[in-house]
Structures are given as C-alpha cells and as structure tokens.
C-alpha cells in the first residue's frame, strides 16, 4: 500500500468520527430465494415508523424512541429500497406479495432517541441512523468461491448434482463434451445455458446451494463471458490454452475477481449487524435432501462473515466486524404458535456448526421463528376425533383455507439425521405447505403491519444501540 493510500484510509477514518455523534448501524438483510427479505425490510421500517405493535422493543415500549423518519441513503450509487411501493403492495386494498430481491438496495431510517440514565438526561436526544442493506442470498453464496479454484468448484458441483431437477440432462450433455477440444463460443453458451437451467430448476424445487448466484440473477451482466461458464470434469492432461476447459477456468477466475470480490469490498464487508432469513418450512416440505442442502449452504454462508467485536481503533479506521447475527425462520404464521418453539429448535440445530463458529469469534447470535407480515389467524380443528392446532388464511387464488401442516418433531434430530444420511423421503409422511396471500386489513393510526416477533428480532439486532 502506498503512502497516499494510507493517508486516504486515515482521512476516511477521521471522517467517520461524525458517526460517534450521530451513530450509524449498518444492517444487512439476506436469505435464500423466497425467504422473505423484501417483506422483512418493509415490515421492519413500517413498524419502526409506527411502533404500536413493538412492545418487545424496549426503546419503543418505554418511549425512548421519540421520532422516526426516512432519509436519503448515504450511498448515491446504490438503488433505494422502494419501501413505499412494497408497503402499498402488502397493505393496500388488494394486497399481494411484492417482488423479491434482484440486486443490492439500501434505505436509511433515522431514529430520534432519548438515552436513559443520568448522562442521558444531560445529553438530550440524539439521532441514530439505521442503514438497511438488502442483497440476494444467492450472491452471498458466491463469497465462498473466493477460496476455491475452478477444478475444486467443478468437482463439488458435479458431485452434489445427482438427484436435482434437470441434473441428468446436464450430465448427459457433458458426456458429449471434450474439455480438451478447442473452445467455441457456441458450445460455451450451450453448456452454460444448460447449467443455468439446471440451477433455476433446482432453486424452484427448494434447493439452496445454487452457485454461481449471479447466473440466477444476472441483471445487466446477462450474456457476458463472466457469466458464461459451467462445471466440467477434471482437467485433461492435454487441455491447452485454447481448450474449453482452460477458457471456462479463465471465466470462472474473472467471475471471482470482477463480480464477487467487488461485492464483498463495496457492500458486504461494511456490515456490522446481520439478519439471515431461512425458509425452513419450505425445505422440510421439499424433503430430506433439501434440508441437508440448506444446512450445508447456511454453514457455508457464515464462513463469509467476519464475526466478532471490533476494537475502538479498528472502528475508527473503518474496519467492521459483524457483532450480532440473527437467524430467522420465516413464515412462522404458517404454524400455530404451539409449534413455534419446535421450528426455532430445528433452525438452531441446522445452523449449529456455523452458529458455534460465530459465537466462538465473539459475535452474539440468536435463532428465532418470525413472520414479518402475519397472513393467518389461528384456530383449532377436529380431525378423526382429535383437536389439531391450525391456521386459517386466504390462498393466492382467493379461496379461504385451513392448514394443519403436520406436527414438527420435538427432537430436531428426527429431521436432520435422515437428511444427513441421504434418506429419499420422511418416514412419517410429508409436511404440508400452502401459499397464503396477505390479508386485507385496515391499520389503526400508530400501528405498523401485524407480525410475529419482529419486535423481539429488532430488539436483538439494534436494541443495545437505542
């Protein structure tokens, strides 16, 4: 690093001193496809602006939060999270679920807070800025590619591919490919297209580990060479510079250096609080293989974090560490509340390895079952003379339905053991899933959207800074 670069770093650190007077919390929100990131952020902001349902957030319950308002986000080159559009979609006259995350976006919410205690009385109110950063979980999975070369990544992908949708078609296509043959763009595009189709089908079927993530959400990079490669068998000894294998290797390396690394540097490495949203119920419904795939994917995701508490000097100079990580099992409103503790226990067990690693590094972690927007009501139904705890809601086609998804096991090992052992199906039958639409409602003045444990989630994530 040159002297000029060091001077720039120091000046950036000095400039960040302003954050000591108006402190900023940078909260990252991620999760895999359909985990509910957009709904979570919209509900978080709405319930901090109107705090009538936030009894579990101490600063809201005791009146320490005097006011909250939206401001322009500090990063002018990052799209704004379209909060107003998403809130109208979720709570309008004809509510519907908003579109999912397609790229990085950001929103700043400022909170006017009166600190407690003797010193707080002397200081008066202060402003705490909450910068919420939304990014696709599929992109986060790519961070672990930084530690793998093309040969390692190809071997891992091909090893876990059997059993996934369209896997046989892709492997059959590879059987006719000579990796040592001279590269042609037509063949490269055909192979990459077949692999991308397999990734999309796997994601839609409930699989979690689908890399490279940008293949599923290419944006403006669609069709670029950095997104036109695929896993191949081990490198042949006679694979020359112009071979298909060497060209795919080069493009894989370009993907890491030109796509993954900038994302880490510009967005991910600056986060100091993190939410990881997990659709556990969807994985359970998809079967044991999907549960094991999700467990491995989430463990890999956590290796990309930099957990632990940063010292004051590191904070001054701009170094960040993820201090708190919340693992949230979403769609808790698909279960009666009596099963919520079991859902939390399953998530905790799924993430045990990754969570222990974060705890060991000094970060505080928590697992929780939540629903960012509650779409159901609870009731008890009778079936074969037995009373069952169920939920009622409106399906996407407008019909009313009552759901009893089955009883989650009290011991998470009843799910995780057969998943690890490669069981083809659950011995005790399937676990039902329904797609409920948001419920039409009229919010009272001062109340945010109805939720399950969003107040407790926010208390864990930022309560100490309020």
TrEMBL record:
InterPro entries (alphabetical): YcjX-like
- Check the record and name the Pfam families matching this protein: DUF463
Protein name from the UniProt record: YcjX family protein
């Amino acid at each position: 690093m040159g002297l000029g670069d060091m001077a720039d770093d120091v000046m950036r650190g000095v400039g960040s001193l302003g954050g000591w007077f108006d402190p900023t919390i940078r909260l990252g929100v991620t999760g895999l496809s359909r985990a509910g990131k957009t709904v979570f952020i919209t509900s978080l902001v709405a319930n901090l602006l109107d705090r009538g349902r936030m009894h579990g957030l101490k600063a809201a319950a005791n009146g320490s939060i005097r006011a909250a308002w939206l401001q322009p986000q500090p990063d002018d080159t990052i799209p704004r999270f379209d909060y107003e559009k998403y809130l109208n979609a979720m709570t309008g006259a004809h509510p519907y679920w908003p579109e999912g995350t397609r790229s990085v976006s950001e929103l700043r919410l400022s909170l006017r807070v009166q600190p407690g205690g003797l010193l707080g009385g002397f200081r008066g109110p202060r402003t705490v800025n909450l910068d919420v950063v939304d990014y696709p979980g599929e992109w986060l999975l790519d961070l672990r590619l930084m530690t793998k070369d093309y040969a390692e990544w190809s071997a891992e992908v091909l090893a876990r591919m059997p059993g996934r949708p369209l896997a046989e078609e892709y492997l059959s296509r590879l059987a006719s490919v000579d990796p040592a043959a001279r590269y042609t763009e037509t063949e490269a595009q055909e192979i990459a297209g077949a692999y991308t189709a397999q990734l999309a089908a796997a994601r839609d079927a409930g699989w979690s580990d689908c890399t490279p993530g940008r293949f599923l959400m290419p944006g403006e990079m669609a069709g670029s060479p950095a997104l036109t490669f695929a896993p191949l068998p081990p490198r042949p000894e006679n694979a020359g510079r112009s071979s298909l294998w060497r060209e795919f290797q080069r493009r894989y390396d370009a993907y890491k250096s030109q796509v993954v690394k900038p994302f880490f540097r510009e967005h991910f490495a600056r986060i100091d609080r993190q939410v990881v949203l997990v659709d556990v119920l969807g994985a359970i419904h998809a079967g044991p293989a999907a549960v094991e795939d999700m467990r491995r994917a989430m463990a890999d995701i956590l290796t990309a974090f930099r957990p632990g508490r940063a010292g004051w000097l590191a904070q001054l100079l701009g170094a960040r560490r993820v201090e708190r990580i919340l693992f949230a099992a979403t769609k808790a409103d698909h279960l009666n509340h009596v099963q919520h503790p079991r859902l939390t226990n399953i998530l905790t067990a799924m993430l045990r390895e990754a969570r222990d690693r974060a705890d060991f590094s000094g970060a505080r972690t928590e697992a929780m079952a939540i629903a960012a927007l509650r779409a159901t009501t609870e009731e008890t139904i009778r079936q074969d003379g037995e009373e069952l705890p169920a939920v009622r809601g409106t399906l996407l086609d407008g019909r009313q339905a009552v759901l009893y998804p089955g009883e989650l096991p009290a011991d998470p090992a009843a799910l995780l053991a057969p998943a690890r052992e490669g069981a083809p199906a659950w011995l005790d039958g399937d676990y039902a899933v329904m797609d409920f639409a948001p419920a039409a409602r009229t919010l009272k003045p001062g109340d945010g959207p109805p939720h399950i444990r969003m107040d407790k989630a926010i208390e864990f994530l930022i309560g100490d800074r309020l």
